[in-house]
Structures are given as structure tokens and as C-alpha cells.
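Self-study notes.
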Amino acid sequence: MSTTAFETLARLLDERWTCRQFLPDEVPRADVERLLTLAQRTPSWCNTQPWRVEVTRGEATARLRAAYAEHVMAHPQEPDFAFPAAYTGVQQQRRRECGFQLYDSVGIAKEDGERRLEQMLRNFEFFDAPHVAVVTTEEELGTYGAIDCGLWVNAFLLGAQALGIAAAPQAALAGYPSLLREHLGLPEYRKVVVGISFGYADLDHPVNGFRTSRADLDDVVTWHDA
């Protein structure tokens, strides 16, 4: 039986994962442009297309990585869009399961606070990725501008998977928008939604060996028939 469009999309969703260790090799500019061109087809409210994307490579990535290294431990997070105030119930359960899988993959004990901190800080090293995409939206578009950017991110991630490019969407990078404004020349009215580290996966690294689960349909869908 020939592969249908639905089956292709299902395979991309099933096989996509968050890469947490990259090889140093850069993605050719032509492939990055191909990926960005695909993501540009993302739908948005009234076709506003609020996303703007800053893409780093080479020395620009290295400078941004160094800036985070100096900044993160000395400054509080001040995201443009508030991070979750709390995790409770099933959301907390899922978050903990994901965290324990991550720590287990690299041999970090639950009580080893020092190594857990080191692993968290790997976010700001971009997991050694050669590229970062920083996604911003227009301030006046508010929450729905950010939602449209989320649709763009999903298209980017699936397109990357189709091209053999690994990626890690990272809210952590959005926790320090002032740093990004300074180093990327972003105006104040552009609000930082998320960062995406991307490149080629180091498939031999154990941190890339685990996969998270998804809830059953009955856990997330309520049918109303009458």
C-alpha cells in the first residue's frame, strides 16, 4: 500500500523528539532556508503572520552562548510571557516523569542537586547546537500572537524532522529577553516567545535515547453528542 499523506504526517509526529546533544556540524544554509520556507506556510489569525525569527550560526551562536553563560546565574528570569505559576495534578506527574527520564538517561540521581543544576544549565549552552532560532511576536497581538508563533514552531519542528535536522524547543531561552534584545538587536515591542536549538543529533549520546509518552485520547477529549 502506498504511503498516504496522513501516514507521512503520523510518522513525522511519532518520530520527532527533543534533541539534547548535538554534533558541531552546521546545517547548510540552503537546508535552513528550505525549512524556514516550509514553516512560513503556517496559518495565523487573519493571516497576521506575527512571527519574526532570528537565526544564528557560527560566531553568532558562540557569542550568544557565552552571553548566556555570564548572564543566567546572575540575573532572575523575566520572560515576556509568564511561565507556569505551578504544576499540579497530572501536569506535575507528566513533568516529573519527563525529568526523571532525562536524569536517568545520563545517570543523575534524583538527590544529586549539583548535577541536576548542571544538566539544566545545558539549556543555555544550546546542548552544543550550532544554530539557534529565536521566535518573537508583536506586542500588540498579545496572547494570540504567541499562539500563532506556537503553530509556526510546530511546523518548524516537523519540517526539521522531515529533513533529518534535530531540534530542541526551549522556553528556557525565553526567560532572559533583555539578553536577547541586546545581542540580537530586538526592539522592545518584539516579545520573545521561545528559542529553538537545532542542528544534527549526536545519536551516540545517552541523553538522546529516551522518549516521552503521550496521554490516551480518552484523557484529553470529551465528546458531546446530544
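Second protein, same conventions, sequence then structure:
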Amino acid sequence: MLKEIKTLPNNPELVGLAELFRDIQYSENGQKLNLLVPWSVNQLPDRKQKHPLIVFVQGSGWTKPNIDYKIPLLSHFAEAGYVVASVSHRNYRDGFQAPAYLVDVKTAIRFLRANAEKYGIDKDKVMIMGTSSGGNTSLLVGVTADDPQYKSDEYADESDSVSAVIDIFGPTDLLRRFFNANNREEAAEVINNLLEADDEESKNHVATLEMALGKDHEKWIPLLESLSPSKVANEENSKIPFLLMHGTADNVVNVEQLDRMYNSLKAANADVEAYYIEDGIHGSNFWSPEVRETIRKWVAEKFPL
């Protein structure tokens, strides 16, 4: 060894290192997830370390989430010591009506708990985060813990509950989102007008709603209410912390959707923290360094390593 060459320490604890396991099938229906796992789980197995789990649901308009899309952003959590799962779900355009997407994500959570030892997961520290429709899904997971109506037979002995929720520009009141309606009566009027309309745009709108919600139009309103986390949240089911973020220039999901969720959670005496992202749109410029750092700090506060 030469004296003039400097020496750096090695990394016996494998700090800051993670690996990606792609396309793990978690359900008999073929749904898959990507999993980011700290290196220490597999390369230092004698440590038997348990890591908090972050489940991520990419926005897709309730179609097919791209489970690769946010891997660069999510990898920073894995490097810090979290296990991170990017989860897919069934696509309503393939004939899988709501709430299939919610059933799938809950199944994924139970799958991960069932395989907690294999992947180094702390079953008691599970958080969910999602963008857009994934934000809606994440909030619903948070306020419908172990609800039997959303539970498949797979991994039935495990819980699908979570200990914290992060919603990124998700729709929270679907009557307002789809019909610009503040209540059932207004929604019913809009639906009736759509069904009676003869123009191509209205017919296409109805066809899309039928794919997502079914052809029994009488069930649309109660179904959409049950999938509106701002309407579902109450003091009993909202005892976990929530982080809400929404861009003020979002022209896909209006920022008022955050307001509705925030007001609902405050009325339920929930632990909720919320941020407007100045001039933030639906993705893209939304992801400022300040936004990412705020999320990082919040995660670290709720699930310290």
C-alpha cells in the first residue's frame, strides 16, 4: 500500500444500499408489485432487522398503475432503511369495476405482511402513500382498515390496516369530482341529464362510468360515496396520522379536494398535516425539493429508523 493514497472506511452495515425486486405476483388474479429492500435484509440475514414498510400506489385514473414510474423517487426511502412496495391493481377498463382497485391494494398489504420475515418488514409499521387515484386509494385504505367488504380470501389471517397515510393530489369526494355535485340530489340530476342526453360526448361519459361503476345506474351514487374518503372518514376510523398535499394550479383534480378531506379529518379530530403547493400542477413541477424533503421528514417522524 502506498502512503500517499488516502484510505476511506468500508460499509459493514450496508448503510444507504438497496436492491429492487421486480414484478412480484401478490395475488392469484395476476397483480404484481415492485419491492425495494435494504441490502442488509438479504446480505446480513443474521441481524434479522425489521424495517418499516411504505406501500406506494401510482396514479392511473384507476386503470393500470405504472409500478416503475416512481422508483427513482422511492429508492431514496429504501436507501434510508425502509422497505418500499410499488403496487399495481386491476384496471376498470378491463372490466374490473370499483372497488376492485381497493380490494387489490389491501390484498397486497396482507401479502407483504404474510412475507414480512422474507423481506425484513416490520408488520406493525406499515404506511401507504399514493398520487392522484392512488391518493384516493391510500386514503380509503387508511379509513377502512380490515373492512370485510374490501377483503379477498387471500392472506386472510393478516391485517390490511396501516399506521399512516400520505395523499398526493388525490380525489377525495367523487360526487364532486365526477359530477360537480355537492350532494346526492345534485348528483342524481347530473346523472339523469347524462343518461337522457343524445350527444356523443355524454354517451362516451356514460360508457366510461358504466365500465368503472357498473350498468346499474341506481348504485352509482352510493358506490361513489363509499369510495369518497372525505365522506367515509370519522372519529372512529381516522385515528392514524395523515399528510395531504395538493398543487394550487392542478387542473386535473381541483385543490378543493384537499380542502374537503382536510375538513373531514379535522372534524374527526384526526392528526392531519396539509400543504398547498404553490402553482403546483398534477405532477411535474409539483415535486419541488421542499415537497420531497417535507415528505421525508414526515415519514421519519412517524416511522423513525
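Instructor comment on the second fold: The CA atoms of residues 113 and 161 lie 10 Å apart.
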